Each structure stands twice: as structure tokens, then as C-alpha cells.
Amino acid sequence: MHVIDAINNANDVLLSLEITPPNKGTHINDLYETLDTLMPFKPAFINVTYHQPQVVYEEVNDVIYRVPKRKKPGTVGICAALGNRYDIDTVPHFICGGFSKFETEDALIDLHYLGIENILALRGDPAHGERNFIPNRDGHRYASELVKQIDGMNRGIYLEDLEDAQPTNFCIGVAGYPEKHFEAPNIDKDMLTLKHKVEQGAHYIMTQMFFSFEVYKSFVEKARSIGINVPIIPGIKPLSTINQLNTIPRYFHTNIPNPIVEAMESARTKEQVRKAGIKKIAELCRQLLDYDVPGMHIYSMGRGTATRDLLKLMLGK
Ligand code: FAD
Predict the structure, then answer these.
(1) How much distance in Å is there from the Cα of 121 to the middle of ligand 1?
(2) Residue minimizing CA distance to atom 49 of ligand 1
(3) What is the rounded CA–CA span in Å between residue 187 and residue 176?
(4) Digit-coded pLDDT (tens) for 165-197
(5) Does the predicted model carry a pTM greater than 0.85?
(6) Which residue range forms the structural domain that includes residue 97?
(7) Which residues pair with 176 in a beta bridge?
(8) Residues paired with 206 in a beta bridge
């Protein structure tokens, strides 16, 4: 089912989970073990992230070569495997980085043949080891260009003229940043680029993680005020360690409000820190549910135990 149709037809909280492919060389059974514990919460979708290769430099016979090494391959394979095992719809993340538009088209055709009809279209982070995002030669610089390409295929427009070309049927999500994307000069400019992504054909927005209800509310109000009318799904990250109070703001450019920081810092043991963090995020989720959000997207990392505990608390199961 398309994410947008599931949102429009949902009677209950529409839940989606985000997972990262396991490292190369890891058995997929580890991922199944994690997801087996989360499936009882009945997620409607599972998003699977995509990562650019890490760039390393290797010397062979006195010549230095730039070698891209992919640590977490398999996004599309995992989507197909999860669809088979759990009979669930998956949302592969598709990025501009590392792809020419011709390679993107071929990858989209693979998805189409596999019957995977949801995509989260992103520019992607800079490749590991590089400071700035560098588009591929013949690739896209911004997510809006990728959205335009996918939307074109939905209307039967491919990169070359094809006789009687069949349209694809992708539902397209894009990323939104309630506290602005870190490269954008200001939130208003960032909102206009978000609007442009929607105008190019995105059906819904999924947000970066945030930790304050007011931040989400203000983002939605700003979006509506400039004519962005598609659903905006909040992205939620359960907090469970003191370390995350520094790493999350550093990597994701989000603020963690003081009441959450104080609740976690005043806890005495690791277990109490974890309970305090998850309790605070469950409170945030309840505020969001009262605000009638179109769904809830949980960034679920590692073994998914923090996600499981959050869902138990939030859904009372
Ligand atoms: P864009 O929308 O292209 O925006 C990037 C920057 O360019 C912004 O500052 C924007 O304001 C600016 N901009 C956009 N268009 C224009 C324009 N026409 N002119 C001038 N400036 C412009 N990364 C991964 O690598 N893999 C993943 O799987 C992944 N999953 C994610 C899932 C979610 C829900 C979110 C929120 C983020 C995810 N990311 C992922 C991170 C994302 O790729 C990065 O945040 C990236 O830096 C920006 O991607 P974007 O799609 O938002 O880019």
C-alpha cells in the first residue's frame, strides 16, 4: 500500500519504523531477531536507510587510489526480504549521492519490478570521509531533482524516449527539518526548498528527529502558512543513554530541551537514565497523538530495545 493511502485510511496510529542495513558480513537473521520483537506493535511500514560508500585511500605500487567501500549495502534486498517474511510494506530510502540519474532510473525500475512502490527521496549525507555533499557526475544535486525524476517516471517519462512507456506508481516521501537543515541559511529559506520538493511531486513529508512538541507544531504551522498541505509525519527517536545528549545534537543538529536533559542527568543508574529518557519521549509522543499527527515514525537503532520500551509505554501494550 502507498504510505499516502495508509495515512488517508488509517483508523489508528499509523506507525512506521526506520532501520539501518546491517554491516557487510552480518547475517540477516540478526535483523529478523530485532524486528520479531517489534512486529507485535503492528508497524504499517518499515523504512530502510541507504548509505553512500565510505571513501578510503589505498596505496598500491606507489599509486594512491580513491576507493569507495560500502559498509552497509543491501537496502533494496532487505526491503524485498522483509516484505516476504513479514508481509509488510517497506520504504527504501533513495539518495542522490553516488548515483547518476541513469543509475537512479535503473534502480527505480528494479523497485518497480519488485512491487516496492514507496520511496523516501533524499539528497543523502556527504560520503563518509568528505565534508561536503558532492553530486555524482550526471547525478542530482538536490532531493527535489530526484523527486522530479521519480514523478516523471510515474507519468511514463524516462530518460530516453521509449515507445508506449509504462508509468511507474511510486508514492514519494521527502525529508523535512523542524529545526532547519544544517546547511540552510535560515528556516524560511529551508521551508521554501521543502515546498519546492512537494511541488515536484512529493506526497508527504517525514521529519528529522526533534524533542519538543512546540518545535513540531511551529514547523507544521509554518508549512501550512506557505501552502505546504501534504501530511507531515513526525520522526521520533527514543533516548536511552547520557551519551546521546551530546551525540544526537552533534550529528542531527537538533536541540534536546532542558526538562529531558535534567530528567536523564539526575538519574543515578544507567537503567534509571534509560527509563527517564524513554518516559520523556513517550510524553512527547502523547502530545503529538493529541495533536492528531498523521502517523509516527520511530528511528529504531541497534537491537530495537529502546523502541520496544517506548512503544510499550506509548501504546500501553
Ligand atoms: P535537500 O532537500 O536536497 O536539501 C539539502 C540542502 O540544500 C538544504 O539545506 C536545503 O535547504 C538546500 N536546498 C535544497 N534545494 C535547494 C535549491 N534548489 N537551491 C539551494 N538550496 C537548496 N541520509 C542518508 O544518507 N541516508 C538515509 O537513508 C537518510 N535517511 C533520512 C531520513 C529522514 C526522515 C531524514 C530527515 C533524513 C535522512 N537522511 C539520510 C539525511 C539526509 O540525507 C541529509 O539530511 C541531507 O543532508 C539532506 O537531504 P535532503 O533530502 O533533505 O536534501
Answers:
(1) 9
(2) 123
(3) 11
(4) 999 999 999 999 999 999 999 999 999 999 999
(5) yes
(6) 3-315
(7) 207
(8) 175, 233
How many angstroms separate the alpha carbon of residue 162 from the centre of ligand 1? 31
Residue pair 314/41 in contact by the 8 Å Cβ criterion = no
Query: What is the spatial distance between Cα 49 and Cα 285, in angstroms, rounded to a whole number?
Result: 23
Helices (H), the chain: 3-9, 28-38, 75-86, 101-114, 143-154, 187-199, 213-225, 244-252, 258-265, 270-290, 305-315
Closest approach atom of ligand 1 to CA 52: 25
Pocket flag, ligand 1, residue 184 (CB < 6 Å)? yes
Backbone angles phi and psi of 29, in degrees to 5:
-60, -30
Question: Which triple of cell numbers denotes residue 18?
Answer: 526506520
Query: CATH number for the domain including 37?
Result: 3.20.20.220
10 Å Cβ neighbour count for 133? 17
Domain count within the chain: 1
Whether 50 lines ligand 1, by a CB cut-off of 6 Å, is yes
